[in-house]
Each structure stands twice: as C-alpha cells, then as structure tokens.
Amino acid sequence: MKNNKPKTAAATLATATCALLGTTALAPVHAQEEPEWEFDTALLYYGESDNRVQDVSLNFLALRNFVDDRILTMSLGVDTLTGATPVGAVPFNGPQTFTSPSGNAVATRPAGEIPLDDTFLDTRVALSANWQQPWGRLNTVSGGLSASKEYDYLHLGANFKVSRDFNERNTTVSFGLAFAADEWSPIGGTPTPLTPMAEVGNLSNRMGDKSKDVVDVVLGVTQVINRNLLVQLNYSLSNSDGYLNDPFKIVSLVDPATGDPIARAPTPGADSPSHQYLFESRPDARTKHSFFGQAKYYMGGKVLDASYRYMTDDWDIDSHTLDVRYRWPISDNSYIEPHVRYYTQTHADFYRTSLASGSPLPVNASADYRLGEFDAITFGVKYGWKTESGNEWNARLEMYSADGTVPGDLRIGTNQAGLDIYPDLDAVIFQLGYRFGR
Amino acid sequence: MIIGALILTGCSSMGVEPWERDVLAKDEMQLIADPLEVAIDEHIYFSKEASSGGRGFGGGGCGCN
Asked: Does the beta carbon of A85 lie under 8 angstroms from any beta carbon of chain B?
C-alpha cells in the first residue's frame, strides 16, 4: 500500500506557503500539477542455493492522482516458483522415500541429506486496489481489496484505514483494519494432522479444502520531530483462525534410542514411503502482537532509514528485526543505498525435529524450519539513477542468509546429537525497477 | 485515552511550520519510499520467517507460509 498522503499534503502546503510569500518552492515538489498517473515496475529474481526455491516475478504498481488528493492505487504481481523445499523429515545415514504431496508418486532422497521435496512448482498471481481520500479537513480514509491465486491456494482480503492529523499536521494518528479469507485446495486434499504419510493412491486420511481467516488491527502514530526527522510507531494485532498447517510438511517418527527414523513395511502392490512420517499439526489459532518503530533522518542530502520490530505470539515465538538503509546521493541524478537487516526468532513451543516412536503423540507438532530457532542477516546494495525525463531506474542485489539452531532437548537419541538437522538457507535477491510518469 | 492525550500534548511541542516541509516532502523522506520494494521484501520474509507485518497489515495472502 502506498502512503502518498504526507507527500501530497506537504507539497501542497509548501507550494501554497511559497505562493503567499511570493517565492518559488524550495524543492521541485509535486503539487497542483501532479502527474495523473505514476507507474512503478520491478523484475525480481529470488534464488536459494542448493537448488531450493527459485522465484522470478514481475510486479506493477499504478497510481492515479485525482483532484482533492484522492488517490487510486492498483497493483499486480506474477510469481513463478520452482525448486525444492525441506519437508521436515529428519536426515539419517540411509536413503528415504516419500510419497509426493499429491499422493500419486514417490521420490527417494539420498542418505545423509536433509530431505527436500522437489515437486514444488507454482505460479502466483496477486492483485490489489486501494482508494484513498480526505475526509473533512484533517482526516484521510482509505479502503482496499486484495486477491491472490496459486494453484492450490486462494486469498481474498479487504482493508480499511483512517488517519487524523493533529498539531498543524505534525502528528498523524491512524487506525487500520484488515480481513483475509484464505483457502487451501491441494491436489489429493489436505492431510489430517498427525496421520501417517500413506502409500501412492491411498488418500484415506485426506480432508477436503481447508480455510483460514486472518484479522489484523494496526494502530499507528507518525510524528514530525523537526525539519529533518520523521518517526513512526505502530502496534499491530494479528489473529489467525482455521487451518494453519502447511499441508506438505511432515515430522519423522524416530527410534527413541538411536534417533533414526522407524522403517515402514511396504504396502503390497503400491509404491510406499520407506519410513514412518506424520503430517504436521499446528494449533488452529494464533495471535501475534507486533511493535514497530521507524525513523527517517535527512542529513544534507543523505537519508538514514532505520526500523525495528518486536513480535511475540501465543505459539511462543518472539522475534526481533532491525533494518537500516542509508541513501547516499553520488551525483545530481543518482544514488547508492546500502542495506543491512538482522532477524532473530525463537522456536514455536510445538516445534519438534522428530517424534519418539512409542511415546504418546503431542497435540501439536511441526518440524517446519520456519518455526525453528534461527538468525538471519541480509546485506544488500541498491543503485538508482534518474533519466533526463525524470524517470528512475534502480537495481538492487542482496544476500539473505539464515542460520538455525536445534537445542539439545529437541534432539532424540544418540545419532541426532551431532547431526546437521536444521536446513540453513542462503538466497540471492536481484531486483531491477523502473519508475515513470512521476 | 489518557495516554493518547499525553502523547498528543507531548507531540505538540515538536514539529515544523508549514513552510519548513521542503525536506519532508521529498520522495526519499516518505516512510515507504519505494512501495514496490517494500511489498516484495515483505512477501519474501513472510514466506521464510515466522513474523510478518508491523509496518502495516501482515496476515495471509500466500500459501508459502
């Protein structure tokens, strides 16, 4: 969503003031003769090492300015995803065979490797539209709709936001509400949590389509501190209800003494999994609280953009995110912007790398590495340059690296003690963008 | 309400006059200076991490997590 209000309000005020004083505007601010349409386009390549997920996406944003600060924003994104992703099974020193998520084939992964599912292939199309307008002299309201479709996933969303300016428009208080209704419809159906992965053709433990609802509330305060410093503080509450599992993730049943997966007797006449795996089980509700702060500081042409987020939820996950960008003009029409992001999270209380065979099953268990304990760092740099006509090209290259930790109490048996269980991640992000019509 | 009133009272001593907004009006000084890049990043991190949102709405929208 584009936050265009401060720019247009500020630009209008600046120009109106200059007109009263009989001078010209200090900066070439957009006002009164604001171009009607603005476009923002980006081509993205996201690639994980070891032939894991690869994403090529095209993204478009169109913004139409109408009179009286009314703004229509529309976006379109198309993602093409391929590659392999960890299924959650624990590695050991023998090959492992898995039934594919659709239940119609098997694939064998080599000994000693963290098992991946390489049938991952999808196209995602996402659309959104948002309308923003003033409401009275000091309020701004906006409302939007969003939808996205993957082969086996549908998202529909609506959002509403109202903000009010105080203190000569130096303080803006905002309230936002968003609702999402999403639905899983995987081939073969969604698996019943904590039931075994079956042989090819056996879909007896599959359910039909499953849905989840997400409600988000965001309260925010934006404050102009002085001519060069702007800060924002947000609190957000996010409530998810329904089917919150990843239907493709499994947990290994292991020998409590060795930690190795328990072999499964093949089903006569059908390709079968080699070991015993259970489909994951997450709680059917989740409440997240996020506290977010951001500061933008202008230093004689350079801009420091720093933000921090603390997130805590009732799955026992706490996370900290620190993000710093420094935009540095290197000529009248170009800039360079280094970027560093640090992220750390604790693991969910039901995160298990495997489950001991013979013990009572917990109500919830997931070996999804994204629910584990890890730190991640992003280093990047962006370069942007303006054309003679005032349009902007930009290119950025970033490296994302996530490094997980599996505590000793989540390792079972002798063989898991020194095992590399957590699927660490290295990814490259390359984006080429073009903004025009501004 | 009381906290809100205190914040607003405290904030009233900060800020700028309308004719001092030239810097704040610059594109690069907007809280979201590059909306497309922010949207792309939030989508990437949503699919790889257990946290989302904070800056804005964070829920749903992708089968990737």
From this structure: no
